[in-house]
Design goal:
The structure holds 2 protein chains of 2 kinds.
Chain A (H helix, E strand, L loop, with lengths): L1 H13 L1 H24 L5 H20 L13 H5 L2 H11 L5 H6 L1 H25 L5 H12 L3 H9 L3 H25 L8 H11 L2 H11 L4 H30 L1
Chain B lengths: L1 H25 L8 H19 L4 H12 L1 H10 L3 H6 L1 H22 L5
Classes of the chains: A mainly alpha, B mainly alpha.
Chain lengths: 256, 117
């Protein structure tokens, strides 16, 4: 009997990516089942699947103490590959197939301005919260602000400015909160904010910027909107890395 | 051939990321600027161009559309590997700054949506 369990365990671990297809397939099936039974399909199955995924990630993190959610559990390590940046970006690029260039052009100006507004707004929200909580040095304030932009911009800015590792960890946490709230909040709020066309999807991508948040948020609203939001969001982290340690930091330093 | 579609998609992604890295270097930062966005534009232009000069077959197309359809399961896997514990453990500063930033950004969407050309 033990042998069988051991064999199953070895096979599932060795074929991690394949195991992850079964794992995700089950989550998606169960989510659509819940969506149809409980909400008559009104709350999108993929939104439930993403929330369930986050819940499993939380449980996985509590169980293993790692940072990769369920992917830290040996059996499910393949989820790390399936849900990693490489395949995610590959699939995002694929969604661009069939995008109308006219739609992109029509929202170009709104998209670009949303990028600048999004980065600056998030930075200053994070900075103000840091100030309220008693931080008084420009480096820490800017690093927490940068983390609120995305959890990539936080550590990039923090190490460029020489912030303490505690503040950098905090900035990553702020970015994580943002990306998870975008994942959960988008399907709930989409219809109230008119997020149902390529133009608002591009603005959404530019304002939120978190790649994972935007990717998951739009997937749960309407997969057709994914390429538009992803298009602007992909410039967000780069712009943040450009602005946060330079102009935005200097503006904080002027005051402190 | 289905591999033509997959190869075209892969080529666009790699070229886009390389250009994004170069753009980052140009600005002197250690980050990729818009690599995936550039890759998407490349795919849009190249597939459009190839469609005009010689037909991109149905099966070739499936090499791209498959990945576009497997997108949601990938996103579910991505959600399952997030550091949710880290976000929750970040305390009040992380929750407040992330939360308020998301809320304000959501409120701005209808405002900015009015900008047209």
């Amino acid at each position: 009997m033990m042998d069988i369990l051991e064999i199953i365990n070895t096979v599932l671990s060795k074929n991690g990516l394949i195991t992850s297809f079964v794992f995700v397939g089950c989550i998606v099936w169960f989510s659509y089942f819940l969506s149809n039974k409980l909400t008559e399909g009104k709350f999108h199955g993929s939104a439930i699947a993403i929330i369930l995924g986050l819940l499993f990630a939380y449980l996985g993190g509590t169980y293993t103490g790692g940072k990769q959610g369920v992917a830290d559990i040996g059996l499910l390590s393949g989820v790390g590959l399936l849900g990693g940046a490489m395949l995610r970006d590959f699939a995002i690029v694929a969604t661009a197939y069939g995008v109308k260039l006219d739609d992109l052009k029509a929202s170009g100006i709104a998209g670009v301005s949303s990028l600048f507004i999004g980065v600056t707004l998030s930075f200053f929200v994070g900075a103000i919260v840091a100030i309220i909580f008693g931080y008084t040095d420009a480096v820490s304030i800017s690093t927490i602000g940068a983390g609120t932009v995305t959890f990539v911009v936080g550590p990039v800015t923090g190490s460029a400015l020489g912030a303490s590792s505690e503040v950098i960890a905090l900035s990553i946490a702020a970015g994580l909160v943002k990306s998870i709230l975008v994942m959960i909040g988008t399907p709930l709020l989409a219809k109230y904010i008119g997020l149902n066309n390529p133009n608002s999807a591009m603005i959404f991508g530019g304002l939120m910027g978190t790649n994972s948040g935007v990717a998951a948020g739009l997937a749960a609203v309407d997969p057709k909107l994914v390429p538009y939001g992803a298009m602007t969001a992909t410039f967000y982290t780069g712009l943040g890395c450009l602005l946060a340690p330079s102009i935005l930091f200097l503006s904080i330093e002027l005051v402190y | 051939m289905v591999i033509y579609g997959v190869a075209l998609l892969s080529f666009c992604m790699l070229l886009g990321i390389i250009l994004g890295e170069l753009l980052g270097r140009l600005f002197g930062i250690d980050a990729n600027i818009g690599g995936i966005g550039i890759a998407m534009l490349l795919l849009i232009f190249l597939s459009d161009y190839l469609k005009q000069s010689f037909r991109l077959g149905d099966i070739t197309e499936k090499g791209i559309t498959f990945w576009s359809m497997i997108y949601i399961p990938i996103v579910v896997a991505m959600a399952s590997k997030q550091n949710v514990l880290g976000a929750v453990d970040g305390g009040l500063i992380a929750l407040l700054s992330g939360g308020v930033a998301v809320l304000l950004s959501f409120l701005l969407i209808p405002v900015l949506s009015k900008i047209k050309k």
